[in-house]
Design brief:
The complex is a heterodimer of chains A (249) and B (253).
Chain A lengths: L1 H20 L12 H10 L18 H20 L9 H26 L6 H24 L3 H25 L4 H38 L15 H17 L1
Helix pairs in contact in A: 3-4, 3-5, 3-7, 4-5, 4-7, 5-6, 5-7, 6-7
Chain B lengths: L1 H12 L1 H14 L3 H18 L4 H11 L4 H16 L3 H5 L3 H12 L16 H16 L5 H22 L6 H10 L2 H12 L5 H26 L5 H20 L1
The chains are: A mainly alpha (249), B mainly alpha (253).
Main location (chain B): Golgi
GO cellular component, one term (chain B): trans-Golgi network
Family (chain B): Belongs to the YIP1 family.
C-alpha cells in the first residue's frame, strides 16, 4: 500500500509544482525599477492630450498590485479609527474582498466591453491601467479619512478622482475607433471609477461622522456602536422598541 | 609511544590486518590514490620483515592476547562515539553566534548586511519574536496570538511569491520566513510601549510609522543583499512596510 501512496503523493506534488511554475508567466510583469514606478504613478494623474494614435500603456503588475494593497491598508486604518464592527465577516476580509474584487472584476468587465467595442487593449494592460487609476482613490481616501469635511471630500472626488478617470478615458479613447464604441467604453469606466470612490467614502465614513457628533456635543449621549450591516431603519426600530419596553417596565 | 610502535609493527606483520586494510580502502572507495599509496608500503613490509615460519605462530599468539587490535578497536570505537557525538545545540541547528549577528544586523539598518548570513534558515529567532509580540500584546490586554500567526503565515507566503517573481534567483520559504521574523524585533519594542502608554494619537502614530519604517528598511536591506537586487530596495521595502503596518495596527488598536 505504501508504494501506491507514494506514487499518488508524488503525482499530486508534481501537479502542484507545475501549477506553481505557472506563476513564472507573471515574471516579466514584475521587472521594474523604482524610478519607473514613480514616473508611472505621477503620469496616472495627468490626462494625455493626443488621442489620435494609440497611447502606450505599461503592462506592469507590480505598481497596480501595491496600489491595491495600499488601498486595503487605508480602508483597514479607516475602519479601525472609526471602530467599525463587521458581523458575518472580518475587517480584513471585507477590505481585501472590496479592493481586489473591484480591481479584478471591473478590469475583466472592461476587457469584455473592450472586446465587444473592438478596442486595442490586452487584459494585462487593462489591469495595469485600472490599477494605476486607484492611485487617485488612495490619495483621496487617505486625506479624507483623517480630515473629516464633506466639502473637502467632494473637492477631492472631483479633482483627484476626475483627473485619474480622465487619464484612463483618454488612453481608452486613443485605442478605440468609432464614436458609439468610445462612448460606451469610456462612459462605463468613468461611472464605475467615480462611483467606487463615492462608495468607499460613504460606506466607511458614516461611523466616523457618528462618533464626531457624539464627541462634539456638550451633553454626551451614551456611546453607540453602529454595526455596518444593520440598516438605519431597523436600527431605529430596535432603539424605539427597547425604549418603549424600558418605559413600560 | 613504545606500545604504539609495537602495535604498528604487529599490525603490518599479520595477514589479517593487511586484508582488513584492503577492506577499509575498498569501503572508502573515493580516494583511490590514498588507498594505493597505503597499500604499497604494506605490501612491501611483510616481505621485508616477516620470515614465513614465524608468521602463523605470531599471528595466533596475537589473537589470543587481551590487549589486541579487535578489543582495542572496540574500546576506541566506544570512546570515539561518545566524543564524536555532536553537542545538542549543534544538532538542533541553533547557533547563538549567528542569531546574535542577525539580531545586530536588524537593529542597525544603516549597516550593510553580509549576504551569507541568510544562508541557513533559522526559525528559532523568529518564533521567539512572534511569541514576544504575542506576550507583550497580552500584557496590554489584547489576546491576538491567532492574528500574529495568521498574518505572519500569509505575509510569508505573499512575500515569497513576490520575491520569486522579482528576483533572478529564487528564494525558499524558510529564508523568507527567517528574514521577516528577524525584522519583527523592532515591532516588539512598539508593542511593549503600547503596554505603558496608548499609541492612539499623533505621537503614537509617528512612533508607529518610525518603527514600521525601521522594520521594513532592515528587511529590504537583507533581502536585497541576499538576492543581489541592488536598486530595487525601495520596491521590496514597500510590501514589507505594508506587512509590518498590519502588525502595527494590531499593537495600536
Amino acid at each position: 500500500l505504501s508504494p501506491q501512496m507514494w506514487q499518488v503523493g508524488k503525482r499530486q506534488a508534481s501537479r502542484a509544482f507545475s501549477l506553481y511554475a505557472n506563476i513564472d508567466i507573471l515574471r516579466p510583469y514584475f521587472d521594474v525599477e523604482p524610478v519607473q514606478v514613480r514616473a508611472r504613478l505621477l503620469e496616472s494623474m495627468i490626462p494625455v492630450k493626443m488621442i489620435n494614435f494609440p497611447q502606450k500603456i505599461a503592462g506592469e503588475l507590480y505598481g497596480p498590485l501595491m496600489l491595491v494593497f495600499t488601498l486595503v491598508a487605508i480602508l483597514l486604518h479607516g475602519m479601525k479609527t472609526s471602530d467599525t464592527i463587521i458581523r458575518e465577516g472580518t475587517l480584513m476580509g471585507t477590505a481585501i474582498g472590496t479592493c481586489f474584487g473591484y480591481w479584478l472584476g471591473v478590469s475583466s468587465f472592461m476587457y469584455f466591453l473592450a472586446y465587444l467595442c473592438n478596442a486595442q487593449i490586452t487584459m494585462v494592460q487593462m489591469l495595469s491601467l485600472l490599477g494605476y487609476g486607484l492611485f487617485g482613490h488612495c490619495i483621496t481616501l487617505f486625506v479624507t479619512y483623517n480630515i473629516h469635511f464633506h466639502s473637502l471630500f467632494y473637492v477631492f472626488w472631483l479633482v483627484v478622482g476626475g483627473l485619474s478617470t480622465l487619464r484612463m478615458v483618454a488612453v481608452l479613447v486613443s485605442r478605440t475607433v468609432g464614436h458609439t464604441q468610445r462612448l460606451i467604453l469610456c462612459g462605463t469606466l468613468a461611472a464605475l471609477h467615480m462611483l467606487f470612490l463615492l462608495y468607499l467614502h460613504f460606506a466607511y465614513h458614516k461611523v466616523v461622522e457618528g462618533i464626531l457628533d457624539t464627541l462634539e456635543g456638550p451633553n454626551m449621549p451614551p456611546f453607540q456602536r453602529v454595526a455596518r450591516d444593520i440598516p438605519v431603519v431597523s436600527n431605529a426600530v430596535l432603539n424605539t422598541t427597547a425604549k418603549t419596553i424600558a418605559l413600560t417596565l | 609511544m613504545s606500545n604504539f610502535e609495537q602495535f604498528h609493527f604487529d599490525f603490518y606483520q599479520s595477514n589479517y590486518t593487511i586484508e582488513d586494510q584492503e577492506e577499509v580502502c575498498n569501503s572508502y572507495g573515493s580516494d583511490k590514490n590514498l588507498c594505493e599509496s597505503r597499500k604499497s608500503p604494506t605490501e612491501k613490509h611483510p616481505a621485508a620483515f616477516v620470515p614465513s615460519d614465524v608468521l602463523p605462530q605470531s599471528y595466533t599468539g596475537r589473537i589470543l592476547q587481551p590487549a589486541c587490535s579487535p578489543d582495542a578497536a572496540a574500546q576506541l570505537g566506544y570512546v570515539d562515539g561518545f566524543d564524536e557525538e555532536t553537542p545538542l545545540l549543534e544538532e538542533l541547528g541553533i547557533n547563538f553566534e549567528h542569531i546574535w549577528q542577525k539580531t545586530l544586523t536588524v537593529l542597525n539598518p544603516m549597516k550593510p548586511a553580509d549576504a551569507s548570513i541568510m544562508d541557513e534558515t533559522d526559525l528559532t529567532g523568529p518564533m521567539v519574536f512572534c511569541l514576544a509580540i504575542g506576550a507583550t500584546l497580552l500584557m496590554a490586554g489584547k489576546v491576538h496570538f491567532g492574528y500574529v500567526y495568521g498574518i505572519s503565515a500569509m505575509g510569508c507566503l505573499a512575500m515569497h511569491a513576490l520575491l520569486n517573481l522579482m528576483s533572478a534567483s529564487g528564494v525558499s520559504h524558510g529564508c523568507v520566513a527567517s528574514v521577516l521574523g528577524y525584522c519583527l524585533l523592532p515591532m516588539v519594542i512598539l508593542s511593549s510601549s503600547a503596554v505603558v502608554f496608548s499609541l492612539q494619537g499623533i505621537p503614537g502614530t509617528v512612533f508607529s510609522l518610525f518603527i514600521v519604517g525601521w522594520c521594513s528598511l532592515s528587511a529590504s536591506k537583507i533581502f536585497t543583499s541576499a538576492l543581489a537586487m541592488e536598486g530595487q530596495q525601495l520596491l521590496i521595502a514597500y510590501p514589507c512596510a505594508l506587512l509590518y503596518g498590519l502588525f502595527a495596527l494590531l499593537a495600536v488598536f
